[in-house]
Amino acid sequence: MLLFRPTPAPLHAWRRLLLRSFGARIGDRVAVYPSAIIWAPWNLTIDEGATIGGDAIFYNVDRITIGKYGIISQGAHLCTASHAHDSVNFELVTAPIHIEEEAWIAAEAFVGPGVTISKAAVVGARAVVVRSVDERSIVAGNPARVIGRRAIEGRNRLQGRAPSDFGN
Questions:
Q1: What is the dihedral of CA 120, 29, 73, 167, to 10 degrees?
Q2: Which pTM does this prediction carry?
Q3: In what order do the strands lie in the sheet with 44-46?
Q4: How confident is residue 9, by pLDDT bands cut at 50, 70 and 90?
Q5: For residue 41, what is the DSSP state?
Q6: Cα dihedral angle (36, 40, 44, 49), rounded to 10 degrees?
């Protein structure tokens, strides 16, 4: 914490090095902002070009994976654990979270255990996501519901092809 949080925002390479030294698997050009909180770096995989915004919280008792160019905005909370509410002892239950390539989790959204946010999907600000989200879906609200489809303009950064080349 002493080597991570006080660093200036542009020092992403330093924070990648620190996270890797604690077991995180982090690709090139990943931006992790200094106020992000990552509970267990050894349970974290981030592909190239992804961004973890300021004050994002990763309670990653289980695995969290973020695909290429995935964006986790400021204040978002990814939580891989809960408790068995139907048990007298409230045992800890965990499930991984997968954020696929080019998906975007907007500011202060919550993503719960076992959720997959599919390729190019968008989770709206302050949404609460407890079920997986389909490719290119836009979800918002509490609980999150589909409110639209994401139309991606321009060239695909991953393959250099127009989105229409992939079909809808």
A1: -10
A2: 0.87
A3: 25-26, 44-46, 64-66, 97-99, 116-117
A4: confident
A5: G
A6: 20
